[in-house]
Design a protein that fits this description.
Elements lengths: L2 E10 L2 E11 L4 E5 L6 H9 L6 E6 L2 E2 L9 E4 L14 H7 L2 H4 L7 H13 L15 H13 L5 E5 L7 H16 L3 E5 L12 E6 L1 E7 L31
């Protein structure tokens, strides 16, 4: 089992974000996650990649409790705002992707030939190798997103976690991403994707998960809206956490 969550809860201040979430993801699966804004989707991914910890419940990665899991380089992560670079950001495409290898090498250590091979391989897979010496701030949003996907792939991860990876990507880029995901699946890489749009993942997902603080529905290859699971799909309109001190609510 790659990911195991059992009755996981998480709050920001007194705002409940995840309430008793249980989920299992096996090796080689592509799992799509959807749900309304504020449903806890991004927080769930942050728990899995180790940016935050569950406040109760159990989370295991590759069969190891998350609190003692040391092989974080086995997990590649592409965050929701991955492509938001300032135009003056002083790094090339190659340098940004190479920086992803620090999860394996650690800081203050020299990169070696293997690192460079992994970077060029990852850039080639996303069609960005010809841009290797271009400042990343000069790229379009879709190109920057490809660079960040390459940064995650440069680790040669066993698990790839992606939060709305099609944001800022044009139709041609989305088709390329779909083909890339299919190729990674064929290599046995496990993939977890948050997305509101099912089209680009058609025929790829092994199951969809509908999340609204709790798991509403799970284990269908059909996108929740097409399966009739409408109870947790509309965007939130209600005020959450009235009377609480201000704190972020994960999406």
């Amino acid at each position: 089992m790659v990911i195991e969550l059992n009755n996981v809860r998480f709050t920001y201040g007194c705002h409940p974000v995840l309430d008793g979430v249980s989920l299992q993801v096996t090796a080689g699966e592509i799992v799509g996650i959807t749900g309304p804004n504020g449903a806890g989707k991004t927080t769930l991914l942050h728990l899995i990649v180790g940016l935050v910890r569950p406040q109760s419940g159990e989370l295991k990665l590759f069969g190891v409790p998350a609190g003692v899991f040391k092989e974080r380089h086995q997990i590649g992560f592409v965050g929701q705002r991955a492509s938001h670079f300032n135009r003056s950001y002083p790094a090339t495409v190659y340098e940004v992707v190479l920086s992803g290898r620090t999860a394996l090498r650690g800081f203050f250590r020299f990169f070696n030939r293997e690192d460079r091979i992994c970077v060029e391989e990852a850039l080639g897979r996303v069609g960005m190798l010809v841009y290797r010496n271009v400042p990343v701030g000069e790229l379009s949003g879709g190109q920057q997103q490809r660079v960040m996907i390459a940064r995650a792939l440069a680790l040669r991860p066993r698990l790839l976690v992606m939060d709305e990876p099609t944001n800022g990507v044009d139709n041609a880029g989305i088709k390329d991403l779909s083909r890339l995901i299919g190729g990674l699946r064929d290599e046995g890489i496990t993939i977890l994707v948050v997305s509101h749009e099912p089209g680009w993942l058609t025929g790829l997902t092994s199951k969809w998960v509908c999340l609204d603080r709790k798991i509403c529905s799970c284990n269908s290859r059909v996108f929740p809206r097409e399966a009739g699971w409408t109870e947790c799909l509309p965007a939130r309109s209600e005020k959450i956490g009235l009377g609480c001190a201000d704190s972020p609510v994960g999406g």
